Amino acid sequence: MTRQEPGREPLLEVRGVTKSFGAVAAVAGVSFPLYAGEAHALVGENGAGKSTIVKMLAGVHRPDEGTVALDGEPAGFSSPAAAKAAGIAVIYQEPTLFPDLSVAENIVMGRHPRKALGMIDRAAVRAEAERLFARLGVRIDPGRPARGLSIADQQIVEIAKALSADARVLVMDEPTAALSLVEVERLFSVARALRDEGKAIMFISHRFEEITELCQRVTIMRDGKHVSTDLVAEVTVEEMVRRMVGRELDTLFPKQDVEPGAVVLEVEGLAREGVFRDISFSVRAGEIVAFAGLVGSGRSEVVQAVFGVDGRDAGVVRLNGKKLRAGSPRAAMSAGMALVPEDRRQQGLVMDLSIERNVTLPRSRALSKLGLLLGPGERREAVRWTERLRTKYRRLGDPVGTLSGGNQQKVVLAKWLAMAPKVLIVDEPTRGIDVGTKAEVHRLMSSLAAEGVAVVMVSSELPEVLGMADRVLVMREGRIVAEIPRAAATESSVMFAAMGQEAAA
């Protein structure tokens, strides 16, 4: 069902587009309108076809069938340059600025104002950047290099670049995944201002609270097909979830009741100058312990030091009573500890290697004979774990970079679970993945705990913390300031502690 406004012409319209890669139909017969002055959410599970739609709008892919219409006229974008010239701008989750050029130079790249004799008018370049930042209501120095800008500021620069090129349609692809709450609110203020100016915004996110806050219309996709387009005000979050996954989710947090066993992981007096101090905690077999706190509180740094990725100045880490050598991931792995990192692309996977090779990397020595990997053994191991995690792929030999974000996360999990760890540390286990995959990851974490694995979870999503943790350790400014049992953990108790209100917690 596609809801279109009678008597109102869409600024951009996707009309029955289909795109296949080999025998796989990534998108099949999808249609929906984008109206000027509206933010339109595009949602669906990882692998639903959202990225393919974005790439067709950006001119990276051309539809096999169907058209993209602009102002009512077919506008086949033959290249990214053609899409930009037509007024389409894509703001990606990870912007791609030229790091050694100034912010202002990045904004006018390819369209530098010139003086006589063709010289670049640097004063005009800076003035253009200042004008755009004033219009967006943000403060960024136009003369500073792009290198070192936060992800949030890089996205603002990309938006300024789009406005400088007179973009009319802004596609925002998971723009908030790596942002703090304050940065998200600033981005939304900018997006609302652009929407109210008459721009059409297509917003892709897995966070339903963001969709209901920013968007007026929502299109839902599943398995490459269009499911529905509705006004956000007329469809509940529960209905959106049901349409996305094509089934009722019994529960997003399928936490099993497990009687914790003996202490497996002990951390005493862990410290790293200027980052965290006096960190002590323990985790028992079958227990899920969550680290919560605001961005910058030191949660990820603590678990990386526990695993040995980062060094520590003081403290002891013991696994089953055995002291682990500081700064040695190999020692942690040998003792039975696994770490699923926050940044799966940079730290968790080798993107150019195959899916099966990524799954078996930590066990390559065990699967080798005379230094040579045994292909059948590697394949059996990869099949076993990708099937258990319900990973979607075409061929195990494909590069892992061809998978959707949620399926990449499953490969990272498969890689470490194949080692049968005694302690599993997961840092932001469901960041950037869809609601159906989230439920599967939560189910897996719960079943591992039921099998006796000690699980340590770092999460910025309070519902996930409250839904999955047996205990919540709240950090602030590099210290654990509260330990809250499951029965007493609420959004307010966790946030009070994270913001310095221990008495309320």
UniProtKB/TrEMBL annotation:
Tagged with keyword Cell membrane: yes
Main subcellular localization, coarse class?
A: membrane
Any idea where the ABC transporter domain is?
Answer: 12-248, 258-502
Its subcellular locations are:
Cell membrane
The keyword Nucleus appears for this protein: no
Kindly state which keywords UniProt assigns to this record, in alphabetical order: ATP-binding, Cell membrane, Membrane, Nucleotide-binding, Repeat, Sugar transport, Translocase, Transport
What topology does it adopt in the membrane?
A: Peripheral membrane protein
CDD domains recorded for this chain?
Answer: ABC_Carb_Monos_I, ABC_Carb_Monos_II
Q: Which GO terms describe its cellular component?
A: plasma membrane
Chain segments annotated as transmembrane: none
A GO molecular function assigned to this protein is: ATP binding
InterPro entries in the record: AAA+_ATPase, ABC_carbohydrate_import_ATPase, ABC_transporter-like_ATP-bd, ABC_transporter-like_CS, P-loop_NTPase
The entry's protein name is Monosaccharide ABC transporter ATP-binding protein, CUT2 family
According to its UniProt entry, this protein's organism is: Amycolatopsis saalfeldensis
Q: What is the lineage of its organism?
A: Bacteria, Bacillati, Actinomycetota, Actinomycetes, Pseudonocardiales
